[in-house]
């Protein structure tokens, strides 16, 4: 498909610098650079260059990023189509007020149970593989997102918030199935396709996170529920988790708007604001 791996120059063997790198996993400060330069009998610039090369060695290569994005593209497209097939004939998919009709005596349909297990298994696998995935600066937000998502899926299943849960899942998948393919085509240098997918992703992401999620989910669980039932512990717990998700949405919407603004100005997608290294200015650019 034309994917070309960039050849990285390896740092020359140096026991002192390697020992410092293994302890700290980052570039040394200016004062530390001076000390290391004296210990190794090297110039200040040579030590800086060594750490720059050593950091790049640990960065994820293009093939690894391509494989990760391809796998996630396959999942998100599959699960979004599955969600549409499962929910297209459900009343609450078209009218969110139907989420509470007959609650809590709502039967568990096998297709909904399978859809839940598909989503839960994926996010559990994401937590397991997180230490081995491509490293990015928003790793703390990702951990929080995965934890909140797993708690939401599990609790909504146990408390029979199944209808709300399915709405949350398909709203999220609607934009994700454009994001990961955009990454794939970006790695392949198919710029027109990548840019088109990125614009579609940005529009859908902002609409679903800033419009649909607050109006169809948060309003539904926080306000409309109160018109029908008295609040209980599950009501507060569920809404607390949903608010955590919404705050993360606002954080990522800010990054998406930044990239969209730069795209409009420059005519191309700038480097990912969550890029995996502060020294990756010459590395390939990502779309998210």
From TrEMBL:
The chain crosses the membrane at residues 74-93, 113-132, 144-170, 190-208, 220-238, 244-265. Keywords: Endoplasmic reticulum, Lipid biosynthesis, Lipid metabolism, Membrane, Transferase, Transmembrane, Transmembrane helix. InterPro entries: HD, Homeodomain-like_sf, Lag1/Lac1-like, TLC-dom. It is found in: Endoplasmic reticulum membrane. SMART domains: TLC (SM00724). One of its GO terms (molecular function) is DNA binding. SUPFAM superfamilies: Homeodomain-like. It catalyses: sphinganine + octadecanoyl-CoA = N-(octadecanoyl)-sphinganine + CoA + H(+). Pathway: Lipid metabolism; sphingolipid metabolism; Sphingolipid metabolism. Pfam families: TRAM_LAG1_CLN8. GO terms for cellular component: endoplasmic reticulum membrane. Its main location: endoplasmic reticulum. It comes from the Eukaryota. It is a multi-pass membrane protein. The keyword RNA-binding does not apply. Residues 64-265 form the TLC domain. One of its GO terms (biological process) is ceramide biosynthetic process. This is Ceramide synthase 4-like isoform X2. It comes from Eublepharis macularius (Leopard gecko).
